[in-house]
Amino acid sequence: MQEEKVQGTPEENPGESGGESTLTVLVATAVNALIAVLKFVAGLLTGSVAMLAEAVHSVADTSTELLLLTALRQSARRPDRRHPFGYGKARFFWALIAAVCIFVSGAVFAFIEGIRAMLGSDAEQTLAWVAYAVLGGSFVLESISWLQASRQVRQESASEGVSFRTWLRTTDDPTVKTVFFEDTAALIGLLLAFGGVALHQVTGSGFWDGLASVLIGLLLTGVAYILGRTNAGLLIGRQANQRTLYALRDALAARPEVDQVVDMLTMTVGTDQVLLCARLDFDDRLDVASLERACVEIDADLHARFPDLEDVFLEPVPRADPTMRQRVLDRYGGAGARRLRDGLNAAD
C-alpha cells in the first residue's frame, strides 16, 4: 500500500475528518435530546421502568455528545508553549469521561430501577399505546443518527483500506466510535424496552419490565467498558497502526543516506496526529554537514508524504551498539526486531 493511501493525501487533512465528526455528533445530540423528552413523558404516563431507564439512557447519550463536542473543540487548539505537542489527546480524555457518563448516568439507574421492579409488587401499567408510539418514533429518530455514524465509519474504513470492524477496533477517532456504539446500543435498548412493555401488558407482571431495565443496564455497561478501554489505551499512548508503522520504516530505509533503521517509536498524540522518533544508522561516509542536511531533507520528505506526522525526531546511532540492540529486542522481541530491520515481509 502506498504511503499516501495509508496516511491520507494532503487534501484529506484532519480538519475535514473533524468537520464530519462534528456533524455526526451534532446529529446524535439533537436526536437524543428530543428522544429523552419523549421517553420521560411516556415513562411517567405508563409507569414503565424500562421506559424510564431508556429516558435516562437518552439523557446520558445527550450528555455524552455534549462532552464529545467539547472534545472536538479542545483537540483543535494549536500547540503552544505549555503544550508543545498540541491538544490532540483532549479528544481522548473527554471521550473517556463520556464513557464514564454512560455508565454512571444510564447503567446505574437502569440497574437500580430494574431490580426494584423485579423484586417489588406489580405496578399497574397504563396507556401502553403511548409507550409503543414513543418507542417506534424513537427507533426512527435513532436510526437517522445511526445511519450518519455508520456512513462516516464506512467512508473512513474505505479510505484507509480496512474493514468496517477493523476500523472500529483500531481507529484513533473516539468521537465517531462513541456515537456509533451509543446509537447501536440505543436501538437494541429500544427493542428491549418494547419487549418489557409488551410482556408486562400481556402477563400483568412488572417483572418483565424490570428485567428489560436490567438488560438495558447491562448493555450500557458493556458499551461503557469498550469505549473506556479504547480511550484509556489512547491516553496512555498507543503506537501508530502497523500499516503506517511499516510504511514509515520503508520510507526511512529507502533513503540513500540511511544504512539501517535501528529503532523506531511512534505515538498517537491526537486523531490523525502521529509522533515519530527514529534511530538510524547513517552512512559512515557522511560528514557532519552532510548528516545535518540529510536529517533536514528526511524530515521534509516524511512530512510531505505523511501529512498526519506532527513531529519527527531523528537520532544517529550505530547499529552494532549492544545496549541499543537490547532495547529493541526487549520492546519488540526477536520477530519484531527483524521486521523493523528488514521490513514487513521479514520472516518471523
TrEMBL record:
Entries under SUPFAM superfamilies matching the protein: Cation efflux protein cytoplasmic domain-like, Cation efflux protein transmembrane domain-like
TM helices/strands, residue ranges: 23-42, 92-112, 127-147, 179-199, 211-228
Topology in the lipid bilayer: Multi-pass membrane protein
Domain Cation efflux protein transmembrane residues, every copy: 25-235
Iron is among the record's keywords: no
Keywords: Membrane, Transmembrane, Transmembrane helix, Transport
Region (Disordered): 1-20
Coiled-coil ranges from the UniProt annotation: none
Locations listed in the record: Membrane
Entry-linked NCBIfam families: CDF (TIGR01297)
Protein name, per record: Cation diffusion facilitator family transporter
Lineage, opening ranks: Bacteria, Bacillati, Actinomycetota, Actinomycetes, Pseudonocardiales
